[in-house]
Every structure is written in C-alpha cells, then in structure tokens.
Amino acid sequence: MMKMRKALSAMLVAAMTMSLMAGCGSGSSDTGSSSGTSSAKEESSDEAVFKIGGIGPVTGGAAVYGEAVKNGSELAVKEINEAGGINGVQIEMDYQDDEHDAEKAVNAYNSLKDWGMHALLGTVTSAPCVAVGEVSKDDNIFMLTPSGTAVECVQYDNAFRVCFSDPMQGLESAKYIGEKGLAKKVAAIYDSSDVYSTGIYEAFVKEAENQDFEVVAAEAFTAEAKTDFSVQLQKAKDAGAELVFLPFYYTEASLVLKQAAGMDYAPIFFGCDGMDGILAVEGFDVDLANNLMFMSPFTPTSEDEAIQKFVKDYEEAYGSTPNQFAADAYDGIYAIKAAMEEKDITPDMSPSDICDAMKEAMVNITIDGVTAKGLTWEASGEPSKEPMVVKIEDGDYAVVE
Predict the structure, then answer these.
(1) What does the pLDDT look like over 104-163, one tens digit per residue?
(2) Using N-to-C axis directions, what is the helix angle for 351-362 and 324-342, rounded to 10°?
(3) Which of 14, 94, 115, 278 is the most buried (most CB within 10 A)?
C-alpha cells in the first residue's frame, strides 16, 4: 500500500465529536499541576528534567483511549529514563484528564503550561486536540498527538501526529477493498453527526469511484439515534451489499454486528481504527466479530520482535493487552526523544525555542517503532508509514495481507 502522505492535507475533525472550545494560556512557573485531574507525574527532583505533558480522557466514555495513551507513554518514559534519559536528562511526565471535553483539555493545557511543560504528547481525541492546538500555536509549544485523526489537529506548524488521518483511512479502505476484490456491492453506514465518521466516509466514497465496486447504499445515523441500526442494515441487505463499511467506533459497531446477526445478514464488515476495542465491550459476544476487518497501525499479535517485547512489557505493567492508542503513544514519546536528541535540546531552553528546534528535527528523524518501521514525518505534521489491515479471527486480532 502506498505510504501515508499529506496528500489530503489539513484533515477533518474528531476521533469522537465534541464542541470545540478555545482558551488563553497564562505564564509559566515550576509549581506543578493544579488542575485536580488525573496525573501520571513522576517523582520530581531538584535536578533539571524534561517536562512532557500529556492530555487525554481517563474518565468518561472515551477513557479506553486515554488510559491506553497514558499507559503507553508512561511505559516509554520509564524505559527511556532507565536507559539514561534524553542526552542524559531524565523525563518527568504529567498526564491530565480532559474527559474528552475540549474546554477541559484547554484547562489541562494551561495547567501543564504553568507547570513548565517543554512539549506535549496530546491530545488523544480530535476535538480537544483541535482546541488545544489553537492555544499551543500562539504559545509556540510543540505538540505531538498520538491519535488525533482530524485534519485540523495538525493545521499549525507546531503540531505533528503519529496516527493516520481521517481522510487517508477512508481512501486506503476503499483502495484495499477494491484491490483485494472483497466485494462488488458495498454499503456504508456512518454517523452524520460525527466529523470523524463523515470525514472517513466522504473520502471512502470519493475513492470508490476509482475502484471496481459500487456503493449500493449509504445510510446515516446521528448521535441521538445510535442504538437501532435495523433500518440501515435492512437497506444494505435489500441492495445486495456483500460488504458493509462502518467508519465509526466500536461501541456502535458492536450493536450493528449483533443486530445484523439477528436479521440473518452476514456480509463482510469493514471498519477503521475506531474499531479497536470491540473485543472488550462488556456483554458483547466476541464470536459476532469474527471476520470483521479494519484499518489499524498496530496489532498485538504481530510476530515482530519489538512489538512482542512491547506487548509483554505492557501486559506485565498494566495487566492488559495494548491497543493501537497505547502503541501510538509509545512511539510518540520515542519520537520526542529522537527529535530532542537530533537538535541537542536541553531543559533550560524556553518551550518556544524547543518548539522551533523540534519543528526542524521532526522532518529529519526516523524511528523504528511498534506502529511502523522507518517512521518519518513531513513538515505538514503528517507521518509517512504504511497502514495495515487487521482481521478478527477466533476472538483475537490477526494481520492480513
């Protein structure tokens, strides 16, 4: 598959939809976080340290994403510190809970700024990420989002991302379905109230025009009506769709799969990175997910040696298997390390000077991470890496060609 490029530029909003809020930063000091939110801050010392902030939801409906990012970043920080730090300087991390709320994300950012943050890993979901981006660009503070997929997450030159963008997921999904000949008739069900979902859907149907399959049904739902998908599924079935594209999140997808089984409809179901986590839905019969396929940058069942070590260390530390959000965060911390080392950045530099150096460094570094080998970045903030497709088989994830 073609490498992820910034071909679709400045991307679309929302790993999950939220109203965007902007705010103003205040001055900085070394007083520490005072937001009262969940923190992953290590023991501080009198010695100079690199202060890396993190923002994401560790409570609320999107907590599965934020908690994974928190864990993945903490694991990377621990490894780096044990190996001597960044050019001999230790990392201190403070991870703030934004509850997947844009206004709270900006408040968390301001807290981290007051703490003396040198760089930000965040935020996790797209709408809060866009809101934080608006204030961080005015402060010229470097931010690397592990999982903010919206176009606007990297619209300013201080912002980069580890994950795939919304439009690229839609484009690559259509190409994969067409090039692999998975179906001749395809239906799409999407959340018209969610920019993450609509961004992927729009890119998908545009690319479908170049592929050897027909979109025979395109059925929308909204956040106010996301529990009953019987009408959308019936229209897909009546249209003879052999594959149903689901560009939304695993919670709703679990209901789609259950309702499809109840009406004896068994097409191929194909989704994007929001599907990661479906096997952990409480009360969900995982057998219903067999043969579900989705785009992902990571699978814990890979035989790659680095991935196996990451999975083992993560499971030992947190008692659970890492998902792609944890993997993106893990690679994100190592990218920050590589960029700081590339420019010999020191913690006595101002956050703005660090940001200027990081902007130059990011386009020169290459890392072999757990989400990609030879991972690089463009000045646009977009990563260059190949996507993979994961298929659920026997209640587990498997990479497919």
Answers:
(1) 999 999 999 999 999 999 999 999 999 999 999 999 999 999 999 889 999 999 999 999
(2) 100
(3) 14
Q: Are 124 and 144 a contacting pair, CB within 8 Å? A: no
Q: Which CATH number fits domain 167-296: 3.40.50.2300, 3.30.70.1400, 3.40.50.300, 3.30.56.10?
A: 3.40.50.2300
> Which pLDDT band, with edges at 50, 70 and 90, does 270 fall under?
very high
Average pLDDT of the chain?
Answer: 88
pLDDT in tens, 314-350: 999 999 999 899 999 999 999 999 999 999 999 999 9
Is it true that domain 50-164+306-386 has CATH number 3.40.50.300?
A: no
Long-range residue pairs from 343-349, CB within 8 A, at least 24 positions apart, any chain: 344/87, 345/86, 345/87, 346/48, 346/87, 346/89, 347/48, 347/49, 347/50, 347/51, 347/89, 347/118, 348/48, 349/118
Kindly state the tokens that stand for 363.
């386009």
Q: Examine the pLDDT at 76 and tell me if it is beyond 60.
A: yes
> Does residue 324 contact residue 112 with C-beta atoms inside 8 Å?
no
SS (HEC) of the chain: CCCCCCCCCCCCCCCCCCCCCCCCCCCCCCCCCCCCCCCCCCCCCCCCCEEEEEEECCCCCCHHHHHHHHHHHHHHHHHHHHCCCECCECEEEEEEECCCCHHHHHHHHHHHHHHCCCEEECCCCHHHHHHHHHHHHHHCCEEEECCCCCHHHHCCCCEEECCCCHHHHHHHHHHHHHHCCCCCEEEEEEECCCHHHHHHHHHHHHHHCCCCCEEEEEEEECCCCCCCCHHHHHHHHHCCCCEEEECCCHHHHHHHHHHHHHCCCCCEEEECHHHCCHHHCCCCCHHHHCCCEEEECCCCCCCCHHHHHHHHHHHHHHCCCCCHHHHHHHHHHHHHHHHHHHCCCCCCCCHHHHHHHHHHHHCCCCECCCCCCCEEECCCCCEECCCEEEEEECCEEEEEC
